[in-house]
């Protein structure tokens, strides 16, 4: 039998003395009015995005209304708005944002999943339109998560930490004592790779850019558990593997930069090693020497989290999210973020676009 519509306690109190509504009437209840970040055409985010009031949305019998708590501004979010990401929401009036965490506000009368008002939930796999104050989506979109971790971690657990975890598991069978090498090590994926590898007993060799503050960046990564951290210029030597000391030659490398930073990974990989490319921050191609293929027998692979999640992996995805948030709760997984109120969206966007120099990942707090 379908259950009655469930609401947050404050709303339930207001409705307590109203007569019970028949199912057909209850199913047509609506979400509260919302504010959302919208765009009608692709282009520069600071020109095409706008914050507007949007009307209430009907729940339907199996809909769940979620009051958003936090949502990050990821590079892929920017790319979607620009129109250069392979998968984008339909225009016009697209709502930006792809991951985040919210609190169940109301549950439709025929919902069967164990979701109750007040529960923390994330869209899993991620779903378009998280940059708004209230969202209504079908019950199977939402995954209940623990609420005893900082809200910004629940908001960002899917895209970056899950990418790091999958890449460590999907390409080379690693055992404790093995080593991996990565560039882009100060990114959130890079920081997660270091910590997740440490949990598994895997050693990490990390490459960062030459820039002011690189020594401070090295120290921060070593505090997370990095075994070695080098700038690109330090690795620009003929016998690069002499720098590894007692560390084994890495069997696996992660590239999110391209250009010279990718070539350095190829130099460090052992015979038969694999480099996985999951990004191209420098916008420069990956150039591979003929000898890397013939004499080292290296393998080049690619990874795109969205493709993996769309291949009937929803339950596995949710299990890993629970595992990752468990590590956060235990203090074994952390990364730098900055919470910015949704009312200051334009400031958060400018920071995400790099207008204020290098900034932590921006997370909108609703």
UniProtKB/TrEMBL annotation:
Domain (Enoyl reductase (ER)) ranges: 43-364
Q: Which Pfam families match?
A: ADH_N, ADH_zinc_N
Keywords, comma-separated and alphabetical: Fatty acid biosynthesis, Fatty acid metabolism, Lipid biosynthesis, Lipid metabolism, Mitochondrion, NADP, Oxidoreductase, Transit peptide
In terms of SUPFAM superfamilies, this protein maps to: GroES-like, NAD(P)-binding Rossmann-fold domains
Q: Name one GO biological process term.
A: fatty acid metabolic process
Extent of the signal sequence: none
According to the UniProt entry, its GO molecular function terms are: enoyl-[acyl-carrier-protein] reductase (NADPH) activity
Catalytic activity line of the entry: a 2,3-saturated acyl-[ACP] + NADP(+) = a (2E)-enoyl-[ACP] + NADPH + H(+)
Give EC number(s), comma-separated: 1.3.1.104
Question: What compartments host this protein?
Answer: Mitochondrion
Q: Which GO terms describe its cellular component?
A: mitochondrion
Q: Does the keyword Thylakoid apply?
A: no
* Primary residence: mitochondrion
On subunit structure and binding partners, the annotation says: Homodimer.
Q: Which family does it belong to?
A: Belongs to the zinc-containing alcohol dehydrogenase family. Quinone oxidoreductase subfamily.
The record ties this protein, via PANTHER family, to: ENOYL-[ACYL-CARRIER-PROTEIN] REDUCTASE, MITOCHONDRIAL
Official protein name in the record: Enoyl-[acyl-carrier-protein] reductase, mitochondrial
Gene name?
Answer: LOC123103253
């Amino acid at each position: 039998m379908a259950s009655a519509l469930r609401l947050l306690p404050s709303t339930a109190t207001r409705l307590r003395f109203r007569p019970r509504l028949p199912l057909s009437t209850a199913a047509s209840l609506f979400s509260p009015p919302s504010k959302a970040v919208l765009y009608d055409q692709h282009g520069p985010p600071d020109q095409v995005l706008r914050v507007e009031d949007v009307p209430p949305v009907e729940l339907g019998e199996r809909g769940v209304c979620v009051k958003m708590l936090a949502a990050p501004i990821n590079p892929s979010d920017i790319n979607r708005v620009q129109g250069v990401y392979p998968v984008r929401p339909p225009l016009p009036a697209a709502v930006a944002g792809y991951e985040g965490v919210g609190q169940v506000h109301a549950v439709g009368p025929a919902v069967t999943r164990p979701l109750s008002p007040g529960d923390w939930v994330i869209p899993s796999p991620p779903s378009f339109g998280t940059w708004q104050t209230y969202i209504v989506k079908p019950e199977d979109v939402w995954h209940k998560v623990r609420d005893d971790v900082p809200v910004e971690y629940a908001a960002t657990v899917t895209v970056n930490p899950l990418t790091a975890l999958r890449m460590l598991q999907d390409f080379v069978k690693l055992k404790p004592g093995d080593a991996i090498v990565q560039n882009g090590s100060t990114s959130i994926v890079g920081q997660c790779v270091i910590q997740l590898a440490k949990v598994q007993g895997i050693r990490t060799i990390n490459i960062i850019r030459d820039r002011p503050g690189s020594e401070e960046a090295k120290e921060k990564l070593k505090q997370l558990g990095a075994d070695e951290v080098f700038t690109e210029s330090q690795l620009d030597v003929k016998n690069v593997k002499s720098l590894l000391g007692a560390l084994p030659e890495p069997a696996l490398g992660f590239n999110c930069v391209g250009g010279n930073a990718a070539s350095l990974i190829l130099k460090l990989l052992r015979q038969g090693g694999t480099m996985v490319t999951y990004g191209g921050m420098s916008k420069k191609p990956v150039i591979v020497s003929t000898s890397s293929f013939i004499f080292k027998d290296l393998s080049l692979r690619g990874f795109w989290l969205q493709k993996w999640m769309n291949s009937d992996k929803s339950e596995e995805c949710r299990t890993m999210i629970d595992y990752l948030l468990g590590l956060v709760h235990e203090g074994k997984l952390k990364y730098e973020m900055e919470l910015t109120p949704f009312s200051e969206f334009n400031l958060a966007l400018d920071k995400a676009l790099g207008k204020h120099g290098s900034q932590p990942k921006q997370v909108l707090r609703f």
